Amino acid sequence: MKRKNLALKKGLFIAFCAFMLVGCKQQVDEAKLQQLTETAVMDWNSKLTDVIVADIFTPPVSSRIYAYCNVAAYEVMCKTDTSFQSFAGKLNDLDTTPDPEEGKEYNFPVAAMVAFSSVGKNLVFNTEAMEKLQSDYLDEIRSTNLNKATIENSIAFGNQMADHIMAWVKKDGYKERSAMSRYQINHNDPGTWQPTPPNYMEAIEPNWSTLRPFTLKASDQFVPAPPTQFDSIPSSQFYKETMYVYESVNNLNEENLAKAKFWDCNPNISYTQGHVMYYKQQISPGGHWIMIACQVAKAEKLNPMKASEVLAKTAVTIADAFISCWTAKYETQLIRPETYINRYIDPDWKPILQTPAFPEYTSGHSVASSSAATMLTHLLGDNYSFVDSTEVNYGLPPRSFKSFRHAADEAAISRLYGGIHYMPAIKNGVEQGKKVGEHAIAILN
């Protein structure tokens, strides 16, 4: 009898310990888990931005990276809410995306960030950085005591979505464009683009128009009005437009100088001190607008599903804007103000901003900013006041705006104050971007 009682007590003790152990394992740190998932898509876009800046990607290439990563995250998240539709069948050539398995538990924000980062590590140079960021994030998720099976299911589904998106990515023409011919400078036409100081770099991404767009039917779907006809005669319209750039820079006030610097967004600026040249990396135009979307999403405390929608639709719109703009740039091949002014007006003149290494027409920041503002206005409303702190990381104070359109218009005119664009490239670029944005809205609704 004593032996039976001892065995019974031992069994009860083991059962009690097992119960306590299971209870401890099931006690999830909900506050920490919420912190890691509630703003995950915004936080991951910020992490991706740091990698993109360090890798010194050009503006068009940066826009492509943001778009694919955010589409991957969105395609995971939309599986949780039937009121949000998949982009499959809406984005060009994107087939039906995989569904999670029935009967399995998932944390969809975690799965979305696995998809986001797994796609990202395939698109950046510093793969190791993205892998470490993903590993660190998953370690943080595990530290919340979230059920192990839930975590593993989420990782598996995120990777499955990433594989699907990467199969789509590989067919967009990105690799093929590098084997195409380089930009050939036409030295017999004085109105065409020439490399500019201080580095006289080759033209950036002359074949970007060959990439598959996201929503556009073709890269030249929205052709801007033609630029003013080149002419070097002082009485000509082109000369007058150039003089407007020249005089605007020469008579710049503090406010307009601040606008020019805030919206610079040249990913790689060179500086020379004596015989030493060094470079400064900063955010791209598309990256700047992605950060605006992130700031607003956090301020509005958007849930992970809505935040993912805002980021994905904005990123896709910006990517199409760069395809549209770059198509116009290499179709018109227009000379930059710096080249024209040095040749015909003032050989010692320099713009405020460093002239980017691609043709002038249309203005990339004008097209991208206008497209992003059009999409964000659609998603979050007109007359939306916000503070943009994007450039704080690059040594500049925040700026306040009354609406997304207000910010886009300031970004556009900043190119005049910076001395790198004529007014037609700015005005027509704004219209071009608006059309791209409206088209994306119609396709993705």
Written account of the structure:
It is built from 16 helices and 4 strands. The chain is mainly alpha-helical and 445 residues long. It has 2 domains: 28-174, Vanadium-containing Chloroperoxidase, domain 1, CATH 1.20.144.10; 185-444, Vanadium-containing Chloroperoxidase, domain 2. The chain has a two-stranded antiparallel sheet. Strands 3-4 form a two-stranded antiparallel sheet. A hairpin with a 2-residue loop joins strand 1 and strand 2 (276-281). Helix 14 packs antiparallel against helix 15 and helix 14 (364-380) runs parallel beside helix 16 (423-444).
What is the strand arrangement across the widest sheet? 1-2
Query: Uncertain spans, ≥5 residues at pLDDT below 50?
Result: 1-24
Count of DSSP helices? 16
Radius of gyration: 26 Å
Instruction: Determine the oligomeric state from the structure.
Output: single chain
Order of helices and strands: HHHHHHHHHHEEHHHHEEHH
CATH top level of the largest domain? Mainly Alpha
Q: Which term fits the overall shape?
A: elongated
Estimate the strand proportion: under 5%
Main pleated sheet? 2 strands, antiparallel
CATH architecture of the largest domain: Orthogonal Bundle
Structural class: mainly alpha
Mean pLDDT: 93
**Percent of residues in helices:** 55-70%
Q: How many discrete domains?
A: 2
CATH topology of the largest domain: Vanadium-containing Chloroperoxidase, domain 2
Task: Write down how many β-strands occur, each being a DSSP E stretch of 2 or more residues.
Answer: 4
Termini, distance in Å? 75 Å
Protein topology:
Elements: H1 2-26, H2 30-38, H3 40-55, H4 59-77, H5 108-121, H6 127-142, H7 148-169, H8 174-177, H9 237-250, H10 254-262, E1 268-273, E2 276-281, H11 285-299, H12 304-332, H13 337-344, H14 364-380, E3 386-388, E4 399-401, H15 404-417, H16 423-444
Antiparallel strand pairs: 1-2, 3-4
Helix pairs in contact: 3-4, 3-5, 3-11, 4-5, 4-7, 4-11, 4-12, 5-6, 5-7, 10-15, 11-12, 11-14, 12-14, 12-16, 14-15, 14-16, 15-16
